[in-house]
Amino acid sequence: MTKKTPLFDQHVAAGARIVDFGGWDMPLHYGSQKEEHHAVRQHAGVFDVSHMTIVDLSGEKVRDFLRYLLANDVAKLTVGGKALYTCMLNEQGGVIDDLIVYYISDSHYRLVVNAATREKDLAWLREQAEPFEVRVSERAELAMLAVQGPKARELAAPCIDAGSRDAALELKPFHGMDAGDWFVARTGYTGEDGWEIVVPAAEAPKLWDRLLAAGVRPCGLGARDTLRLEAAMNLYGNDMDENESPLESGLGWTVAWDPADRDFIGRAALEKQREEGGLRRFVGLLLEDKGVLRDHQRVVAEGIGEGEITSGGFSPTIGRSIALARLPAGDYERAQVDIRGKMLNVRIVKTPFVRNGEVRIDV
Amino acid sequence: MSELPGDLQYTTDHEWLRREDDGNVTVGITDHAQSALGDLVYVELPEVNQEVESGGDMAVVESVKAASDVYAPIGGTVVAVNEALTDDPEAINNDPYGEGWIVKLEPSGDEGELLTPDAYQALLDELES
What is the C-alpha to C-alpha distance for residues A2 and B52, in angstroms, rounded to an integer? Predict the structure, then answer.
């Protein structure tokens, strides 16, 4: 039995093709994944992300707990509502999940974790939280909408409580705030400006309808995936998992090494990897030949070794195929990908591929 | 869903086949197939003169989502491929039974299991129920 978000009827009414995603009935697209993708790059789109798991953590020692639990350091969060992207590691330095943590107050933080990892995340959080006497509360009664695109904030602003609207429009990137009993944050997973809005489930359909009436296009998981790939944002389960280190997943920037005396889960393993060196590269690829790069295709760096595409697809903005890949260490800029037995040429490029509507690589 | 063209034969894998006056057959994928795949971004065509078996791999269509094999509805020799798809794969989305044709085959006599329009419609009705 799959789960439905509070917006399921809205999706059906908008003509969604519904698919099972991590046990949830979710919209894949509403007719054209490509047009939804372009809408977010050029105008505004809305995604139902209510399947994601919101967890509130509270207690006197919640900050100490999170400084131990997470590879990034919540001590960087000094302003209420500020958000931080981080990995939650196991002792071996593998990634249990990636998540966003919001600093609400000294005794209250909010996590947004992936839907597919919900159960193991909650079990891990509860186990680790116990010695810190931190309370772990899943907020299943909340829905979440991501409004994304250059026009997203402008079109969504009238939906925000009048008393909070101006402050919401002034939010800086990666900051959030309470707006009545809603929570609005300037975050997202598309490489565009926009908000993620957390609302009580009962209020989600009305917000959705108002956004659509304002000209915001409903967008499915398909467009969400091509948008995040162009923005070179990692997808848990594809680009990293419990067997992969953040240092070999393009996530080294999220590991806070300083202060050196902060003990966090996985630190010893990561330090050992860093000392040993020879870390595999995590790179962006542009296909120079015709075709489409796909997950798990074999990548050959001649004379060096082999790696694998972790996320591949077609970039609607660039009109070419792009991918993220984990490759052997070394100094090289070209490789070949095995697509159904044919070896096609790829160039290693600096990511992101696309940001704020603009192509950032040389095509 | 629009009505199926009555002059075609179909397969359970959602290919269609048209028998032309010169004895060759034209092959493509059905409207149902293109709709399920979504926006197509690449088509891998076979070589002219390549021989295909009934039910064997013949081409690959790739949408933004995924790659899907196109199977030969009957055996034969490839006599033409729709080169226009190389630059305009969305022709399959826009006109699956016309401009979106994929290959022309000269039949070898290796006939697979083909469906009449009514039988294929019954299959689609079953899938949708």
Answer: 41
For A296, counting Cβ atoms within 10 Å of its Cβ (0-12 exposed, 13-18 middle, 19+ buried), the class is exposed
Q: Which of B39, B86, B90, B94 to mutate to test the interface with A (most CBs of A within 10 A)?
A: B39
What domains lie within chain A, and their CATH numbers?
3-50+141-230 (3.30.1360.120), 280-359 (2.40.30.110)
pLDDT at B2: 64
* Mean pLDDT along residues A290-311: 97
B9-110: which CATH number, 2.60.40.10, 3.90.79.10, 2.40.50.100, 1.10.3080.10? 2.40.50.100
pTM of the shown model = 0.94
Q: What does the pLDDT average to over A207-211?
A: 98
Q: Does B65 touch chain A (CB under 8 A)?
A: yes
B2-46 pLDDT, tens digit per residue, is 679 999 999 999 999 999 999 999 999 999 999 999 999 999 999
Instruction: Closest CB to A316: pick one of B44, B64, B67.
Output: B64
Instruction: For residue A174, name the pLDDT band (cuts at 50, 70, 90).
Output: very high
> Closest partner residue to B65 among A222, A290, A340, by Cβ?
A222
pLDDT for A245-275, tens place per residue?
A: 999 999 999 999 999 999 999 999 999 999 9
What number is the ipTM of this complex? Answer: 0.86
Angle formed at CA A280 by CA A275 and CA A285, multiple of 5 degrees: 145
pLDDT confidence of residue B65: 84
Question: B41 in contact with A at a CB cutoff of 8 Å?
Answer: yes
Residue of B41, B60, B86 lying closest to A314 (CB–CB): B41
pLDDT at A77 over 60: yes
- CB < 8 Å to B38, chain A: 29, 32-34, 222
d(CA A73, CA A62): 13
Q: Is the pLDDT of residue B129 over 80?
A: no
